[in-house]
């Protein structure tokens, strides 16, 4: 039943929420002797460190309380380097690479993050950057992806232990198994010409001596998002198989490297040139694994979508669905008992880089947003045969996203919340999102027994079982960053943060100052604010 009237109880919750916000509590604030033009936020822990730097100075401080561990002028500790052009911290190794880029004469130095001691320096590694250095804790060493070879060096001394010419490119992803590493290669943007003879490779290598046990070609390109640089591929080892999610799914034998089976296709949506580029992400659902079954959304030869079911062990095609005649995106698929439910259309992410020139001044704008790809709808298929069993007409005007809960699918149209019965697509309930007082839904999330609505003007929660409004609180237009325990972290385009308590929708906030930098700690418990010479660590809870 659709609810159009706010109950008195709902008004009480919303009223309580309006006054339940405050500034994030400050863990500590410190003012240092130089500006924080470049920053590195380390891990949490009593002995962990972070740093700030400008062109001349670097200061390393304790992450826990901000106390200075060491501070120095670059020219005093690194007299061979003309300047510090770039940094690459490796927190697990307690080391930081400092680069001085000169055409054909690149220099680097590696410092101990805890003492400032120069561990080792080199002028022989040209074209090196953070993108082609990988740290392996089990061997306490770095693998350097160079133009002609892969070189392993001791983290503390820089001593070369081995090199191999059988691997070209930088390491995009790695997995450790029995002392070996499974490595996936990539040619980072701007460096493809640096790696002569580059070809797509996945290899198994003995980290103790560099011996290549096998090498295999893979399909596709391990891309990162245009602006945020998040990787949009995944590699993992399970049993005797290596799984690579990239342009579909590729499966390799972990012992021999042989390709067991693959279901791949091109789903690139990047476009643009001359500095103006945009890309769409999330328009095709990731492969869905359910026991021995794998469901993959693929593009047919006619540029339409189909779903295929595969046996994970053999790669045998178990069935192929009919084409989605009008679909331009299938962002999500779900399996509930004997039904596979496909979300047709919906909200997907758009990232863009735009360069404009006016009055001789060139400006580059980076944007992360979303768009709703239509047409929208839901379709259900029998998991045993692939036959279509029902289609919902409720969502022709829009879908943000959906999630499965027990025998139901919870769907947001942006304006309403729906509980859809998996067996026949009928509606258990429909609830007006605006009852939460935070505008239309941008996306929905699941938290315990609640539907979390990330709205245009804040956050609200509803009961999953009944659709009843529970709590709500207004905030600015912001994107959900991550959920940590009962805290939902939100971030605006101006880098303001809010941490919502999902139990009652109260929140704490931080408003960023102009020309400052912000970072979220890996555990989500802190926001770091770097403002000129001042560093502030704020609690999200």
Report on the structure:
This protein starts with a strand and ends with a strand. Residues 1-20 have low confidence and may be disordered. 3% of the residues lie in helices and 52% in strands. The longest helix is centred in the N-terminal third of the chain and has 11 residues, at 8-18. It is mostly beta strands and 541 residues long. The relative contact order is 0.10. The strands form eleven sheets. Strands 24, 25, 30, 31, 32 and 33 form a six-stranded antiparallel beta sheet that branches. Strands 1-37-36-35-34 form a five-stranded mixed beta sheet, with no helix packed on it. Among the domains are: 36-123, Thrombin, subunit H (Beta Barrel); 129-265, Lipocalin (Beta Barrel); 270-399, Thrombin, subunit H (Beta Barrel), CATH 2.40.10. The radius of gyration is 26 Å and the shape is globular. Strand 12 and strand 13 (141-145) form a beta hairpin.
